[in-house]
Design brief:
Blueprint: E1 2-12, E2 15-21, H1 24-28, H2 36-43, E3 48-54, E4 64-69, H3 71-99, H4 104-127, E5 136-142, E6 147-148
Antiparallel strand pairs: 1-2, 1-4, 2-3, 4-5, 5-6
Helix pairs in contact: 3-4
Length: about 150
């Protein structure tokens, strides 16, 4: 489970808005010195993000909470989002090049068609997954009271 700490900033029915600042993953990562994500986060001052999640732990406004997302879900989503369009783009580019008799325009057209098809297929593959890719509220960190909820 990949986790991130955030602060509840608003309640909305049975859901809460949680504000996070990307930094905890960078601090514990072994590749932090050569990673572009860390450079981008430091350049933006650790940009704050807000996410709406189901309030499964009865969090209140001002509470520090821990969010989590399944590592396997994140990995499979990354493969679908990046690998499928890239693979289809390369294959369609080769096919377009062969079908056009070696013309570059055919390879370019094939690459664009393959990329578009890859994005469309990726979207369809992830559409039926429900809330698998949504972060979950794991716990309320009650630091002031000296306890973990």
């Amino acid at each position: 489970m990949i986790t991130e700490t955030g602060t509840v900033i608003a309640l909305k029915g049975e859901q809460v808005w949680v504000q996070t600042i990307r930094q905890s993953a960078c601090e514990s990562c072994s590749a932090r010195s050569g990673c572009g994500q860390r450079v981008m986060a430091s350049a933006s001052g650790g940009r704050a993000n807000q996410v709406l999640v189901h309030n499964a732990v009865s969090a209140r406004v001002g509470d520090e909470v821990t969010l989590g997302i399944n590592e396997q879900a994140l990995l499979s989503a990354s493969l679908v989002v990046y690998a499928v369009p890239l693979l289809l783009m390369v294959l369609a580019s080769i096919a377009g090049h062969q079908l056009s008799g070696g013309e570059d325009a055919g390879a370019i057209a094939g690459a664009l068609a393959g990329l578009a098809a890859g994005f469309w297929i990726g979207r369809r593959l992830q559409a039926g997954r429900g809330d698998r890719y949504q972060p979950r509220l794991l716990r309320v960190n009650r630091i002031a009271a000296g306890e973990w909820a």
